[in-house]
Amino acid sequence: MGNQLILAYDIGTSSVKTSLVTETGEVYASAKCDYDTHHPEPGISEQNPEDWWKCACKTTKTLLEQKPDAGKRIAAIGVSGHMLGCVPVNEKCEALHAALIHSDSRAGAQFEAIKAGIGKEELYRISGNVLDSRSSLCKMLWFKEERPEIYRKTAKFLQSKDFLTARLTGNIDTTDYSDASHGELMNIHKKAYDTAVYRELELEMEKLPELHAGMEIVGHVTEEAAKELGIPSGIPVIAGGGDGACADIGAGNVNTGDIYCSLGTTAWLSQCIEQPYLDPEQRIFNIMSLDGIHSSLFGTMQSAGGALKWVMNVLGTQDLDEFNALAGKIAPGSDGLIFVPYLDGERSPIFDAKARGMFFGLSMSHTRAHFMRATFEGVAYALNSILKVFEAQGKSGQIRIIGGGANSALWKQILADVWKTPVAALQASANDSTSLGVAAAAGTAVGMFRDLREATDYIKVKNVTEPSDHQSAYDKYFSVYQKLYEDTKEEMHAIG
Predict the structure, then answer these.
(1) Whole-model pTM above 0.85?
(2) Residue 68: is the preceding peptide bond cis (ω within 30°)?
(3) How far apart are CA 87 and CA 23, in angstroms?
(4) What are φ and ψ of residue 242, in 5° steps?
(5) How do residues 29-59 score in pLDDT, each as one tens digit?
(6) What is the distance in angstroms between the CA of the first residue and the CA of the last residue of the chain?
(7) 252: number of Cβ within 10 Å
(8) Domains, the chain, ranges and CATH?
């Protein structure tokens, strides 16, 4: 003990990030490797699973070149990855088709069939998640109906992190509760696959991997994988978890009632709860924790940093510092300019793929800077709509924030004012939370920590942004924001 390391892989939407994490939660070294997402047709989003493995090998070797002593110090390995995927593999863990990733919505017909058969409400009751064409269950059914040859040859349908875990260990028969729950693949109350669901859909349960807690050891690094990675064989590997569940831990979101916000290209709010909560209006969803015991409530919005990037491109600026400075000169409320960030449809709390964005309240007095501030505020309003649903479980005294948006002092102040809640930034890099979360789980699995609470003791708050005197100025504009979707929904659908 004392100088051991955890090797953490994070399969993101555009890259694999590989990190060596110390027992005190510090990133000893990290490296990234990019890959492409392919969109051959509207609604299709695919990645090559081999790219994940190649990037894992490349980044691991890079780290060992930087830190030659690190290989023999690795005590455990954990993998996190983007969720709502579907990768059909054979017994040798060879992908039989490109991975259908979280943004792939080709399974629209299967979504409609499940909704008409089992029913959206019934599946929400079983899985704790809102049925969507992007769910893993719909994608699995798509393979059966649209690619029957591949379906027949498939040994297991895996998530992104499961594929990498299988390559590390040779074990294709493993997934964790977080990915299975979010993908609507399991009964979240029983922590088991629901036989009735698969019987109704005529899907073979034998093609589903065995369920584990994310922090459970499911294998060890094989000789073959060790050679490709350049590390010793025999290192324990945990089941790992979906990126949302891992970020939960990395943000220190381990006590009942804790809330954090991940503010990146997309954004979400997550609240730690004891038992799954079923919202009568299906505005939010549940994901099992890496410990396999607790749950977290999630509400996800589609375009946060993505909306910011789009507005920057439209306004012809790539200078984020300038964007923040100009936005900061505008009064709270942007003089009545309201941004609705439904640029790619929206998930929580409306779950409407045909929803469309808008700038509302334009006048001759509005300038580029107004559009900039309104963008920050619109994302804050969207997240506040989710937070209002969470408050049925109790109001949090503080909300932690991770992701690239945590680097903007102005955005944090707007969030604190709109939410009427202090916003806490962490000492660790805002982009390391997912890696730190899966590292904490792996460290707990091999006895570095008693439990995940002890493992997250090292996650400290760097600074807190308190709500200012301007918070009441946002009440009127948020009230208007809430009405805009319902008042224009039909028109959105007509042009969507």
Answers:
(1) yes
(2) no
(3) 33
(4) -65, 155
(5) 999 999 999 999 988 999 999 999 999 999 9
(6) 57
(7) 29
(8) 5-239 (3.30.420.40), 252-496 (3.30.420.40)
